[in-house]
Design goal:
Blueprint (H helix, E strand, L loop, with lengths): L17 E6 L4 E6 L10 H15 L9 H7 L39 E5 L2 E6 L1
Antiparallel strand pairs: 1-2, 1-4, 3-4
């Protein structure tokens, strides 16, 4: 990210996080980082990005888009999706850099995951 491209907001201002894209089957298609500095990256963000993309895709339909931010309230105690992250934890086999094509799972309920649509049909998620 160029220094003059503005503030992306959020933790580290969007300059240390990873981004992930999954297809409708939940397979990781692309994963990338905002900078080339190994010491300037937030390593935990790689798995969080995958989980956000997986969750937004997995809980959305053609007629109902649920971002991870919208899911947050529903996952709190007393709501209908309480404990949603428990039955489908992140797949630790996805940790090696060569495993990007696996279905990583890992439902997560905090902002940053959005479902992706093409011609009114859900096609995947972005985290």
């Amino acid at each position: 990210m160029a220094p003059d491209s503005g503030d992306a907001g959020g933790l580290f201002h969007g300059r240390a996080e990873w981004a992930a894209l999954v297809n409708r089957a939940g397979e990781v298609c692309v994963i990338t980082i905002a900078n080339d500095s190994v010491g300037g990256r937030w390593p935990g963000s790689r798995n969080i990005a995958r989980a956000k993309a997986f969750t937004a895709n997995g809980f959305s339909t053609d007629t109902l888009a649920l971002s991870t931010a919208r899911l947050y309230t529903l996952t709190q105690p007393g709501h209908s999706l309480w404990g949603v992250a428990q039955p489908e934890p992140f797949n630790p086999a996805c940790l090696p850099a060569t495993s990007d094509e696996k279905v990583c799972g890992g439902a997560i309920a905090f902002g940053g995951g959005v479902p992706l649509y093409k011609n009114g049909r859900i096609v995947g998620g972005l985290g």
